[in-house]
Amino acid sequence: MGELFLKILFCLFFLRSSQGGSPYMGYKEASSFATTASPEGYDYIIVGGGTAGCPLAATLSKKYSVLLLERGGSPYGNINISRFENFQISLTDTSPGSPSQAFISTDGVINARARVLGGGTCLNAGFYSRASPRASWDSELVNESYPWVERQIVHWPVLAPWQKALRDGLLAAGVTPINGYTYDHVFGTKVGGTTFDRDGFRHTAADLLSSGDPENLHVLIHASVQRILFDTTKGDRPKAVGVLFKDENGDQHRASLSSSGCGDVILSAGAIGSLQLLLLSGIGPRGDLEKIGLPIVLDNAFVGKGMADNPMNSVFIPIKRPINKSLIQTVGITKMGAFIEASSGFSHSCESINCQHGIMSAETYSRMLTHVPAHCNGTQIGQLSTVPPKQSTLEMARAYAESKATLPKECCRGGSILAKIKGPLSTGELGLLNLDADEGPSVTFNYFNNPLDLQRCVYGVRTIEKIVRSGSFAGLIDDGAYSMEALLNMSVRANVNLIPKQTNDTKSVEQFCKDTVVTIWHYHGGCQVGKVVGKDYRVVGVNGLRVVDGSTFIGSPGTNPQATVMMLGRYVGVKILREGLGNEAEI
Ligand SMILES: *[C@@H]1O[C@H](CO)[C@@H](O)[C@H](O)[C@H]1NC(C)=O
Ligand SMILES: *[C@@H]1O[C@H](CO)[C@@H](O)[C@H](O)[C@H]1NC(C)=O
Ligand SMILES: *[C@@H]1O[C@H](CO)[C@@H](O)[C@H](O)[C@H]1NC(C)=O
Ligand SMILES: *[C@@H]1O[C@H](CO)[C@@H](O)[C@H](O)[C@H]1NC(C)=O
Ligand SMILES: *[C@@H]1O[C@H](CO)[C@@H](O)[C@H](O)[C@H]1NC(C)=O
Ligand SMILES: *[C@@H]1O[C@H](CO)[C@@H](O)[C@H](O)[C@H]1NC(C)=O
């Protein structure tokens, strides 16, 4: 009886969610591999069921057997992922089973990587906007691939008041023309698509799996790949033949490519995961690999170099009464290389703790503060707990919490306007800290090392100043009397990263940019086309191995990359089918 009731609830839940792409329920726990593994092996083994891996797996499964290995769990039935209003909860969840794995780059910027079927599309702000064309892409196939994604999971937003105010402010600040509602990357001000439907329900890359062929598509969750296996005995190049992975109980399995086929292992584990796996599998700079005691499969000095993260700087706009939540809907695309976006209202529920700055989400917990409602006391989300234990002293936590506590409360009730820098031009690197695939590597981005990045940020912050001065937020902000310096001051005191602050942060916009930099989670670039992979996304120097995800980008595509990363998964899938099967690809 109870079970039937649950099943009915479950169905209602998914019927409601299936207005766009329908949920994919065909995944299994990784331990099931012990009894269900195909004895012949698989045509394609895809590592990472994320933003690129899901559309790629669905597409290849139309003609080939595909094993998709995802280290995280399922997004379905988790309201922290599916509901718009819970946006910040998953992102700041630091528990071991969290869909978001926190890390801190050596720059002192708090960051996160996805660990869930559907990847970053389960955690992000939902904004959907295409990239401008790239020379290495077949633009006709690009134009076929975006709509395949859009038909299934993309919606047009109902413009929130905060987003209307941003639109009007951008126009007043000269970010013209107004381009209306469009997916295209065009200069001026526009409203983009969203993966949240009108009921506030999130659609993700995992939904794209439901358009695969269920006979050919094998999806395992909690399958954590440890390394790629190579055959170095035949021919003159190493050939990828399979992967080793651990299941949810820690037991190890070996998945193999079918010996008859000419398929590949494809890494779609993201800008950090794919690199970490290449290095752990012996593909990378010889010196770095030797230092950590890894046997070399292929010496490639470029692996892990050129890592980049687009700096994001936010200006918090305080208001005195609560405002409706909104995530990115409007964007200003300036010719000077700064993108302007905004969010509002992620601050007045218990989950949002004392002073949740929406997409900043670098918050500490409420227990130490005196003005927290009793029923919220002890809420322990916040990324401070991700600081390595030795540095995470009680004093540090208290100082961090106090710095938030003295912020005007209305600041936390408002919203923010943010600048993301195009590119960026500053680059860093990724290196292994140890041989454990489940632990994060060391990541450095060197934000603002390149002076042009800093100029772009200054331009962005000055544009935000013009927007604030335009009065377009007047109806939403009760007290319009804040000077820009006071606004910058609050943003500095919000203490959003672990970078020491300077006394001239509000006097010098350059210094403000450097000291309040956070991530917009669009890091990329350690596995670039032309250096680590070719135009066909095959890893140069070995056979049977490709990388298809954001790690291959030089520069973050569009304003926000999820559209392009999903497109890329579809694009490469179709290309492989057509090149391998010609007319028989039927796609
Ligand atoms: C959602 O988040 C809340 C608050 O952090 C937590 O108590 C709950 O367990 C989470 N739910 C799931 C399904 O993870
Ligand atoms: C692809 O679509 C864009 C508009 O989104 C258009 O400008 C371009 O000409 C198209 N390219 C091809 C080859 O059809
Ligand atoms: C805020 O959201 C509520 C509930 O969704 C809605 O009824 C109200 O009209 C919204 N307010 C504004 C100003 O949009
Ligand atoms: C919150 O809980 C702690 C103990 O867990 C207690 O010392 C503190 O007084 C509580 N604060 C409030 C505002 O209830
Ligand atoms: C900025 O904040 C500091 C304290 O951190 C304060 O002394 C100073 O007066 C503030 N300046 C403005 C313009 O609000
Ligand atoms: C701000 O002050 C710091 C410390 O005094 C100094 O190193 C830095 O150059 C100053 N920044 C600017 C842009 O003047």
Q: What descriptors fit this protein?
A:
single chain, 587 residues, alpha/beta, seven-stranded mixed sheet, six-stranded parallel sheet, 26% helix, binds 2-acetamido-2-deoxy-beta-D-glucopyranose
What report would you give on this structure?
About 10% of the residues have low confidence. The chain is globular and about 70 Å long. It contains 15 helices and 25 strands. With 587 residues, the chain is α/β, with parallel strands linked by helices. The chain has a seven-stranded mixed beta sheet with strand order 7-8-19-20-21-18-24. The protein has a six-stranded parallel beta sheet with strand order 1-10-3-2-14-25. Helix 7 packs across helix 12 and helix 12 crosses helix 14. One 2-acetamido-2-deoxy-beta-D-glucopyranose (NAG) binds next to loops. The site of one 2-acetamido-2-deoxy-beta-D-glucopyranose (NAG) has 5 residues, from loops.
Helical content (DSSP H or I, runs of 4+)? 25-40%
Strand order of the largest sheet: 7-8-19-20-21-18-24
Rg calc: 23 Å
Largest sheet entry: 7 strands, mixed
Low-confidence parts: 6-20, 348-390
- Beta percentage is 15-25%
Q: Could you tell me the mean pLDDT?
A: 88
Q: Quick one: how many beta strands?
A: 25
Helix-strand makeup class: alpha/beta
**Number of helical elements:** 15
| Structural shape | globular
Hetero ligands? 2-acetamido-2-deoxy-beta-D-glucopyranose
Termini separation = 45 Å
